[in-house]
Amino acid sequence: MTYDSDRIEALLDEGVRDKVYPGAVWAIGDATGIRIQGTTGVLDPDEPDVPMCADTVFDAASLTKILAVWSSIGALWEDGVLDLDQPLGGFWPEVTGHPLSTVTARQLLTHAAGLPLRAQLKNLYGTDMDDIRRGVLHEQLHRPPGEAVEYTDRAALILGYLAEHLSGHTLDELATARIWQPLGMHSTRFGPLPDEIADLCAPTELDQDTDTHLKGTPHDFSARLLGSVCGIAGAFTVLNDLAALLRYMLDASTSRARAGFGTEWTACSLTVQTGELQPTRGLFWHPAPGTTAEQDVWVHYGFTGTGMWISPAKDRWAVLLTNKLYYTRDRGPLTDVRNAFRELAFR
């Protein structure tokens, strides 16, 4: 395995100079662990003497969908508790008799369930968490299930509710017990973070209420509305924890303890599950933009500036963690950096 570390460092350094992000943490590895890694930039532009570090804590944003929901659903599937193709109304009383009853877990995992495309939780259902749950589970569908692939946060929110129903535990309890603890992901947790850990966190967007950048509090509004523990977002993590998960996905035997899911769930997830529909999807993972099926590179991103890639065919994974949201919501500049980083990481 060869890497062009000089070009990777130059690419990510340029992103700092161009104010795509204040700083970045990155690594490339395989089933044996991290093979090469680095950092660039600062934790917070307001403190220019504090560099970004390998153990910086990041708001994972939509990586929560992988860290907590995808992994927990995989555990329940491998336990034999969940049939991905059984309509939800057949075993979940909360949705029986409602539009969601005809949807399957596989359709939720492939974003082909026909759900409303925007969360809009507060506008539609208010601020009471029980009212929000009831509203989301009883909402009309946007289109018939299986008709189109359309990314929506609601898929992960509903799957998080489903995991809680099937397991009898809250999503944070389930993910911690079945995934994070067995894999040694001891720095991964749902926010808000205690002050001593929040100090190590990369700040994200400016909070208009306090006129300070969020640190240790989830950026995602839906996550904050739901007490920070939900399928959409809300988890915080570090590079080494993501490396542990990705190593395990490539070769489960590398872990001292077995997580709730295993090789069968990974293999199923990193396979196209959407037939002729476009864009193609696995189970929550999707093929990395600009890659071919033969390259077998899969990715998941987070809105705050996080991302992770994995390729079973190449026995390789990569992580790029940034807090680009400190500067802007514009996705364009970081998209260019991500694609260039992926190309260098999987040459």
Describe this structure in words.
With 347 residues, the chain is an alpha+beta fold. Helices cover 33% and strands 14% of the residues. The chain is built from 12 helices and 11 strands. It has helices at residues 5-17, 64-78, 105-109, 121-125, 129-138, 153-167, 171-180, 195-198, 221-225, 239-250, 263-269, 332-345, and strands spanning 23-30, 33-41, 58-59, 189-190, 206-207, 212-213, 235-237, 286-287, 298-302, 306-311, 316-322. The strands form 3 sheets. It has a 6-stranded antiparallel beta sheet with strand order 2-1-11-10-9-8. Strands 3-7-4 form a 3-stranded antiparallel beta sheet. Strand 9 (298-302) and strand 10 (306-311) form a beta hairpin. Helix 1 runs antiparallel to helix 12, helix 2 packs across helix 6 and helix 2 crosses helix 7 (171-180). It is globular, with a radius of gyration of 19 Å. The model has no long low-confidence stretch (mean pLDDT 97).
SSE ordering: HEEEHHHHHHEHEEHEHHEEEEH
The fraction of residues assigned to DSSP E strands is: 5-15%
Overall residue-averaged pLDDT value:
97
Given helix and strand content, the structural type is alpha+beta
Q: Biggest β-sheet, characterized? A: 6 strands, antiparallel
User: What is the β-strand count?
Assistant: 11
Overall outline? globular
| Count of helical stretches | 12
